[in-house]
């Protein structure tokens, strides 16, 4: 604490934050900032958030045209490309902008959870067989290789129709669609707005995890904190569930790259007024803004199908390992929620309903009970939220909190959030050692394409997910429902 700091103010590299109330810190509006910025964090998390360029990136984000109310950083926030990971920003659909930099490269990098009626006892003794079979049957790692490898016509159908394509092809059920955000399809998708290069990158990656922090994890439910909501979600202690975390692969990355380059050429005047060109944005109503929105929605559809195919293959692996049909094991989708997304939504600002582009980069939607966009199965209790921890820590299921619409445009954190770069992680950890320790000490079985991948994702490189979830729960933006713990994990 510096000489001019108090318990109600903090300063990091010249950026001062004032405590508004518990867990809410504000960077006051100054100079060309259009709105204030807010960080939702406990003091320990704030110290970690202030340790890189997150706060400067958040402050820069307030310069985006049409930014409304305040730019936000969730409790898991960390430095990203232009816009911080864990950032939320709502811009006016008529007089604002849409920013690929505030969405991210991995469009709809999201997470889904599948329930089962298996218990931890059913799984014990089969861990190695299961992790080996999942690793052998679910494509992972850099480059190509997918569960479905077909032509560009298939890619375009997926971009246009999302999970409806998977249903028609027998990879999904009606129930799967009913339990996915937006029922697994963005109707504003425009496959023609996705470049040929992006489609070519995607055609051999349909149904694949990729690399980095993407994973497929078999977990057991260790705690249910709200039994009534847990019952509505179909969760109980000792139950086995499956978590799938991945996105739109090379197709999404290329789509982001294409539009960043086009914005640099076609809207250089807007970029010149921003403190960081990585915030690249297209003016609302412009041809480029409409094209990007259509392309982004198409990539969102691709990511939903990607996760659905992985879930389909996972069901098949469980059938072989356990000798039962997946329907008999009640392997049903609890929910699929998107990160890295900008969506047109109606929110009340200063007593007025406004249509906004809500950018959630490394943040997740958190709509409360009663919201019409929450699936009917959960509308009485609130939207499920899935927050993964590291492969050596618990993950959480939350439900949309009553304060989310007022405080965060219906958003909360999306994970634990990194505290260490991948380069530093590889210096500090040895992948094989991490795998051995997790297996021997925690009974967690990890399989990956390389030891480097395991080192990059070692438990020590992430924030404390318990603390991230505590802040969300305390603020009432995402209420804690259940905790899960890893059993088997496959990574790229």
Automatic annotation (TrEMBL):
Pfam families: RtcB. Mn(2+) 1 binds at residues 106, 214. GO terms for biological process: tRNA splicing, via endonucleolytic cleavage and ligation. The keyword Ligase applies. Keywords: GTP-binding, Ligase, Manganese, Metal-binding, Nucleotide-binding. Its EC number is 6.5.1.-. The active site is at residue 414. Residues 181-210 are annotated as: Disordered. GO terms for molecular function: GTP binding; metal ion binding; RNA ligase (ATP) activity; RNA ligase (GTP) activity. It is an enzyme of class 6 (ligase). GMP binds at residues 213-217, 339-340, 388-391, 395, 414-417, 491. Binds 2 manganese ions per subunit. SUPFAM superfamilies: Hypothetical protein PH1602. Mn(2+) 2 binds at residues 245, 339. It catalyses: a 3'-end 2',3'-cyclophospho-ribonucleotide-RNA + a 5'-end dephospho-ribonucleoside-RNA + GTP + H2O = a ribonucleotidyl-ribonucleotide-RNA + GMP + diphosphate + H(+); a 3'-end 3'-phospho-ribonucleotide-RNA + a 5'-end dephospho-ribonucleoside-RNA + GTP = a ribonucleotidyl-ribonucleotide-RNA + GMP + diphosphate. Monomer. Essential for tRNA splicing and maturation. Acts by directly joining spliced tRNA halves to mature-sized tRNAs. Joins RNA with 2',3'-cyclic-phosphate or 3'-phosphate ends to RNA with 5'-hydroxy ends. This is tRNA-splicing ligase RtcB. It comes from Halogranum salarium B-1. The lineage of its organism: Archaea, Methanobacteriati, Methanobacteriota, Stenosarchaea group, Halobacteria. The gene is rtcB.
